[in-house]
Amino acid sequence: MKKKKLQVLNGGYKENVWMHDPNFSQEDVDFINAAFEAAAKEINPAFEKLIWKHTSKKSELKRVK
Fold first, then answer.
1. Do residues 10 and 1 lie in contact, with contact meaning Cβ atoms separated by under 8 Å?
2. In terms of Cα–Cα distance, which of 65, 64, 55 is closest to 13?
3. Contact at 8 Å (CB) between 18 and 35?
4. What is the distance, to the nearest Å, from the Cα of residue 45 to the centroid of all Cα atoms in its chain?
5. What is the DSSP letter of 2?
6. Strand (E) positions, the chain?
7. Tens digit of pLDDT for each residue in 5-52?
8. Spatial distance between the Cα atoms of 55 and 45, rounded to a whole number of angstroms
9. Using an 8 Å Cβ cutoff, are 48 and 14 in contact?
10. Which residues contact 20 (CB under 8 A, 6 or more apart)?
11. Would you give the distance in Å from CA 51 to the centre of its chain?
């Protein structure tokens, strides 16, 4: 029997892309979030959308039939 490859539905991550890669360290996330907070206050409030509530917990795989 041929095995099917797993597909990621509604999510996943892209390596080295902000808000997609769970491997960013908490220090990096805090630093970049601080920059976006400052930009939101001084330049444009739209920068608040880029602030990432980072959790290091990785997503679990679930079998979907």
1. no
2. 55
3. no
4. 20
5. P
6. none
7. 555 545 666 777 777 777 788 898 899 999 999 999 999 999 999 898
8. 24
9. no
10. 12, 13, 14
11. 10
Give Cβ neighbours of residue 60 (< 8 Å, ≥ 6 apart): none
| Residues near 21 by beta carbon (within 8 Å), at least 6 away in sequence | 13, 14, 15
3-class SS of residue 27 = helix
Please state, in angstroms and rounded to a whole number, the distance separating the CA atoms of residues 21 and 54.
Answer: 10
- For residue 40, what are its two tokens? 């939101």
CB 34 within 8 A of CB 27: no
The tokens describing 22, both together, are 């769970």
pLDDT of residue 17: 75
